[in-house]
Amino acid sequence: MTLPWHSLDTTLFSRAQQLLDEGWITRDPELAPVLPVVLERGVGQDWHKAGTFRHHLYGVARSLALWQQPHDVQLLGLLHSVYGNAFVDLVKFDARTERARLQGLVGEEAEHLVHLFCTMSRSQFINKVLERDFDEDGGMELELNGPAPRETVQLTPREVAAFIIVSMADTIEQWFSWQEEIYSRSPNVDTSRKQAVHWAASLWPGPMRPPSRKISQLSQLGLALQHPGLAGLLPMPPVFNRCTVSVSKEDDAAASSLYWSVIQLDQPLVDLDVATHVLEQAVRLNPWVGEPQMVLAQVYLSAGRQDDAVLAARSALQCFSAWGNAWDKRVQWDAWIAWTRILLQSATDGTWPERLDKLNNLALRG
């Protein structure tokens, strides 16, 4: 059965290359002036899921830059939690006293998006999007955070589109198995489980396994952008074939499990056939993340299947370039791209080392 390989969009890959250097954000004319004010609030020291709060904010902004979002949406990504929200207590700016300061820094339009994103009910928003509960024009009435009875706010179609796209970038940057365990059934979180009883699940960072259901949920968020009132308001993210296809929960979970079984060496190790078939099935079930395809490229190389390795490595590189963040959080996005380029180079040139120790000094040429 033919595998669903992606061709490499060289224009997209070129944009991704420009974002591999962590200093990219310091050279952005819109984002760079904001950094000193944000950094002085200690975001580089705050813990946040798979890294620090700085890593998270930069990573969300990176995906939005890669997706060519307008500057106010990129600024929203960089500042999307600075007033705090229902999910985190990381309040870096006091919404009661410091809105004017942030408005002076990023402009009223961007600050309005940030404030609204922080104060609205994110859970209700995600649920309404997943249920396609939009107004006819693509707008949405939403509750604000706080005790009942809650105030409501009317989102414009552009605000809905922006918040969907930022939510996609926000989720792909941070979600991995530890969050999946403690934040079960998000956005409808299971609050019944006590920490002392489920202490093993709470040990951070845990096994760093990729999530089992979030890619499916992200594909549904992306599909919502095809609503007639939302389509065309903002650049469409280049994931899920420009947000036109979805992944089922069942396929998402199965693909993640199959991939992880190879990573954990739960397959026979004497030859490569079983691991190859398992990874190929993972790619068939979920062809929208790069890591299974990248590992498969290396397995193909080990088996002497250079032509197949080229296809797998190119496809993996396309997926990494489309997301701007890693699905498998064990290493950073730029590291996944670097190793994938090594695999593609080796497959193209037929130079995969025969000796194990030679893997230690592979380098990209040109």
From TrEMBL:
InterPro entries: DUF6817, TPR-like_helical_dom_sf. It comes from the Bacteria. Pfam families: DUF6817. Residues 38-122 form the DUF6817 domain. This is Tetratricopeptide repeat protein.
